[in-house]
Amino acid sequence: MRVPALAIATSLALASFHVHAQAPAAPTVTEGPLRAHLSFLADDLLEGRGTGQRGGDLAVRYLETQAAVIGLKPLASGGYRMPVKIEGTRLLANSLVRFQNADGKQITPQNGSEIVFGTAGGKADISIDAPLVFVGYGAIAPEEKWDDYKGLDMKGKILVMMVNDPQPTAEEPNRFAGKAYTYYGRWLYKFEEAVRQGAAGALLIHTTPSASYPWSVPANGFSHERFHLAGSGNPIEGWLQEDVARSLFAAGGFDLDALRAQAERRDFHPVDLKLSVHAEIHSAIRQIEQFNVAGIIPGTDPKLKQQAVVYSAHWDHLGMDEGVSKEDGHDHIWNGAIDNASGSAALLAMAAEAVKRPAKRTQVFLWPAAEEQGLLGSAAYVRNPAWPLSQTTADLNLDSMNFVGRTVDMGVAGAERSSLYDAASKVARKMGLKLAPTIPDLSGAYFRADHFNFAKAGVPAFNVGSAVFSGDGHFEFEHDQEHSSAKMVSFKKDYHQITDEYHPSWDLSGMVQQAQFTLNLGYAVGNAPEMQSWKAGDAFGKVKR
């Protein structure tokens, strides 16, 4: 039977429309807009986009203006801003923490060199007298059948604990993920658990191997103004040098190493160290209102548009500090070009294309505040999201992007915990890429970017391209591997330094590639029949969204 040419053409057109309506492909990200946004956000005019500083306010204004220009839909409030209530706390010099044993012997560690401490409890003046209790790793991990607290009452006590996780054994080589870091090993979890236990405070015993960073890291952090969500922390929290902890334990009649050995067992019980703690904490506290920025692209499918995929990239960096000495002719501005003007710029470039061809699911573009202060903006977001978390299929985060050149692989560390890994594999194949090898997370990198707060809330999430700056040789560059790798290593020297500045000579082809991969993955999960899910047995899979 002959079919008229017009009928064939009409059928083909309808078929093409049907396929397009079912699964719209991700549009193409281009370099021009990305470079323009990056150069502006990293400019000295924005003064490092610091939390509670004018430069941060300018960044928010720029992002919300660009969101409107792009055509992102505002939030239910009618705008693009989401308030984040933050407290800034700076410890005053007349503060102290003193320990005393039953014989009246007193030990007062030197603040800065032997102990660092502060408050996250929201009060300017705090006086505490409390017993000191050793709680091992301070972890409650039902999936590991582990509970360091054993249901004992910790109210009004100051807890001292080890960082990292219970270590693997010959009998249990995969206990707490083996040699990899789990969230239970993170300082943030331990402080949070102390709050849940009703403790008066928490002190962590520092060693460089267990923390994966030297004493200078907490020492520097506690020497400056610290930020936290209003009313969210311990009356006292801090760190002890290992030698100081050893002396304190001995003053109470205990051996630190012996108690450490006990803490490696499931039958460990908290130990009263027979020491009292007297703390006088005086702080200058200021209330700060920062803003997450978010905009929405509604989905096209009548049912799936009730669900959303989130793309996130924090806008803040470390700001400026006139009290810091200039180095090698540099100014006092931590521009944060890579960390994370790059991710913020990429999200703007991606959103500008995504509005032209929406996915079946709704897309939320989110720029969290105060990531550098402890992932505070994303923590506030999951408490009060722009889209219900129960209807959020995934969060794809961008933080510190590739500024060296195109690669033949893509880092997806953390995606293996969920169905996102399978989706990422398919996207990579279509783009002619391979996925960078997955290695044990020995430093807890998965827990140090904004996607983690989504994971804690039960939403599958990871940081796309996270192998870029791993230093483990994961990334293979299309051209000049040796030169490109050397440039990647050089970034480590610039990380959180005033030298992290934008250079017009940067090859942004790799950044565009990374943004395109992220958008392609977003469309893949945005068009998928089912929402993304955690792999069986993953701790975050047990969290109700």
UniProtKB/TrEMBL annotation:
Gene source species: Duganella fentianensis
Pfam families noted in UniProt: Peptidase_M28
Keyword Protease: yes
Domain Peptidase M28: 292-514
Signal listed as a keyword: yes
Keywords, sorted A to Z: Aminopeptidase, Hydrolase, Metal-binding, Protease, Signal, Zinc
Signal peptide residue numbers: 1-21
Domain of life: Bacteria
Gene3D superfamilies: 3.50.30.30, Zn peptidases
InterPro entries named in the record: M28_fam (IPR045175), PA_dom_sf (IPR046450), Peptidase_M28 (IPR007484)
MF-aspect GO terms: aminopeptidase activity; metal ion binding; metalloexopeptidase activity
The protein, known as: M28 family peptidase
GO BP field: proteolysis
